[in-house]
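Annotators were shown the component list below and the corresponding predicted structure, then asked to write short factual statements about the assembly.
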Amino acid sequence: MRPYTYQRPADARAAVAAASGTGATFISGGTNLLDLMKLEIERPTALVDISRLPLGDIEQLPDGGLRIGAQAKNSDVAAHPFVRTHYGVLSQALLAGASGQLRNKASVGGNLLQRTRCPYFYDTAADCNKRNPGSGCAALNGFNRVHAVLGSSDACIATHPSDMAVAMAALDADIEVMGADPAARRIPIRELYRDPADSPDIETVLRPGDMITAVVLPAPSPGQQVYRKVRDRASYEFALVSVALVIETQGGTITSARVALGGVAPKPWWSAEAEAALIGQPATTAQFRAAADAALAGAIGRGHNDFKIELAKRTLVRTLSDATQQGERA
Amino acid sequence: MALEQIPTEPTHEDRGPGAFSVELVVNGTRHALEIEPRVTLLDALRERLRLTGAKKGCDHGQCGACTVLVNGRRVNSCLTLAVMHEGDEIITIEGLGTREGLHPLQAAFLAHDGFQCGYCTPGQICSAVGMLAEVELGWPSHASVDVATRELELTDAEIRERMSGNICRCAAYPMILSAIRAVTGDPA
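Structure shown to annotators:
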């Protein structure tokens, strides 16, 4: 690790001011940042420790929604009684990610902002436009089995690694941000992440010094919630493909559906196309397959990851099938 | 021991990059250290406090050999900074039991042959202590059939899933499972 200074500001405002300086970055759980600092992929000159700021509460809102403080630990969110009963997809997604030790450390804000696990991003000898802008993308013609099939560019085909964010995309969460501007801003999670285009090093719409203070979930939707993750090991592994689904059926007809995919794109992939192909339609396998085809219509395989396109479709069909059968039984 | 005097209050000014005073409470004992802010909790424990039970396996949070308990919760000590734990209660394998009075999980690992080379064992045991505390709190896992239910049955599948953050290169997993299972049958 390169040398750096450390401070623990008294409040959120002071933290934002401290992190607005050149070379400064926030640290909370540190489980991703310190990993990258040891490899000198991240090289901050100042760490601003926000882990002890009073931003970890999980509170129900008057409108029926839930406000999850950005400093809440992943394990606390997953185990929260209201999350477990009303936002099951979020609890499932969190529990499908990382290990018990990491979930005890990792914060909600840090989970959203974690970096890709693309092996070429981690290999400092490899070309990587995300780590070293303009150097090229070694994954494009490399061993790209785990890489993106949706939303990528010729500059970067890395995936976003979070499970939690995929569930939050299906739940239509808002991200609450404090920045240099005194008024807190709210950014829909579906707008938080930028497409990689020509500058994959810039991953979100956040500005330097911006601090995520909370994630706000709208009031729970009726119906079934499922997170399904497909990976190379049964546990403690990133997704090849995952599906977050919130769906309701009445008398065999789909009345509402929200679909997001993980492991396939540079961001949690909200699929308006799949939703449009489901809502108002019969809950049949043929319709599920049509929705899956619609969700992956724009997919581009890069060679080793071609299988992900069909895998994502089948995973979505299976998740839809399981969830709607559960719904009919309920 | 006046633990409350350890500085947990905000530090408005930058500390480092050189060494500065950091006080840690490890296994109930307070230690004053002069360390840089880039010293991980694991390195502080091993290199400065000579508590070499927690092991450096991967140093990237992938193997779990460095697992310790911070305020009762299991964490990877390699992926956190010592300075971030001023005032926290840190328990390492050395603080769980003594040679004469083993922690029940230590005794169970011996009785069930829950290791071969032993390198991952301190992490396995600290992790298991933290894991059983999580079960006590009713936390669900990826192996739980329904995350909403409060009725948790600690099946073998549950134990395996909850312990997946600890790798054993010798693959002593069946015996590790037996050791943990033995302790759950006889609550410590």
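Statements collected:
1. Helices of chain B lie at 41-48, 93-96, 104-111, 121-136, 156-162, 173-185.
2. The first helix of chain B runs from residue 41 to 48.
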